[in-house]
Write a structure and sequence with these properties.
Blueprint (H helix, E strand, L loop, with lengths): L1 H15 L2 E4 L1 H8 L6 H10 L3 E5 H11 L5 H11 L3 E3 L6 H10 L7 H12 L4 E3 L18 E2 L5
Helix pairs in contact: 2-3, 2-4, 4-7, 6-7
Length: about 160
């Protein structure tokens, strides 16, 4: 009973987040209907009312992965041009943090795009990260706390 109540509170919190940082997996899955998590991310987007932000490293990964998808790159360009997604460059002002995070989690390993998302989260801990990457279950903020995360690996 307590677990169910906690889960409802957690789900409400996720829906109420004002800013959501988007990782590569959900971005590619939303655009490419053949992706395993396509239905999941459509459901997430229908439930949240948050400003969607990402970083240039995620966009670079997404363009690379969408090359194989029919019109995938075009879909990503439309998302960017429509303002659906705000793109930031946290590395330019958080180089040390990003590189330290990559070094700290080098055994995971922590991708450059992931480290940039963690830098974005550090600047706004009331936000949520949306990812299909299970590594985000391992990553912690600078105080060692779990991240506010929306993931298909969390029930």
């Amino acid at each position: 009973m307590v677990l169910e109540i906690f889960q409802r509170i957690l789900n409400t919190w996720k829906i109420l987040a004002k800013i959501a940082f988007l990782d590569t997996g959900p971005l590619v899955s939303f655009i490419d209907k053949r992706e395993y998590h396509h239905t999941w991310i459509k459901s997430v987007f229908s439930e949240i009312d948050a400003s969607l932000k990402t970083n240039t490293a995620v966009i670079t990964e997404a363009f690379f992965l969408l090359k194989r998808s029919n019109r995938g790159e075009e879909g990503l360009m439309k998302m960017i041009n429509s303002g659906f997604l705000e793109i930031q460059d946290p590395f330019s002002s958080n180089q040390r943090f990003v590189l330290d995070v990559m070094n700290k989690y080098n055994d995971v390993p922590c991708a450059f795009a992931d480290a940039n998302l963690l830098a974005m989260f550090e600047n706004d801990k009331n936000s949520v990260i949306i990812s299909t990457d299970s590594d985000f279950l391992i990553y912690r903020d600078s105080q060692g706390k779990k991240l506010n995360l929306i993931s298909p690996y969390l029930k």
